[in-house]
Amino acid sequence: MLGTLDVRGVQQESSDAAALRGYLQPLVGEPFLQARFSYGDELTLHFGQPRKPQSRELVTLEEGSFIVAARGSAWYFKTANGPTIIMATNAGRPPVVNGFAQLTTEVVESSQLAQRGARIIAADAGMAPTGATAAGFTCALLLSDGSSLLILPETESALDAEQAALEVADWEIFMTPHDRYLRVGPGPKWSYLPSRAMG
Amino acid sequence: MDADQRRRFGDYLEACKRSGDRGTLNERGDFTRDEMMEKAREYLGSV
User: Can you tell me the ipTM of this complex?
Assistant: First the structure.
């Protein structure tokens, strides 16, 4: 198979891992700007060109032209400075005696997860490994400063339509230059959709 | 709300909490459903 993906197009629900991997590739080369937690302790990583939201309530918050949102998934971030892994899961404290220290979101935001300007050099998606908490797609990013991010789904998809309408994605990537966002999960499915209402 | 607005609404709620405008759902200052609806009206009025 040989072909192109149109990043200005729309892709409704799919389970194809190869195409999902393709839609991640616009991230490659984009510089890291900042990490920020949104409501519900959701990690968001901002990349690309910095800009200010149009909302007057949020005008002081810089955001990137590419935003990776971990939603309700587990994530692991290997920092650029020092042998530190920052992790977040819905499970409790891991049963390890040494080497684990609990953090607040403020501490993580004020630490340098990655060097500002470090570029994404690889972006990949794949099926969560057997034995993972939930079925679905993982997201992996590698940055030029040696830091990396792994997102692992933790939510099973709903069985009935009413619940499915309220589902939160496993992870999302907003790609402002194309007015699109990648919505992945829950479960082994994803969509590439308009991020802004037209009109 | 479209997806961009929904994402920024999450930032807005977090900014409210950090500025002291906290909800009553729990000790963390999260918002109840009614408080969330009020916040949504505030937010949409500012966009």
Answer: 0.91
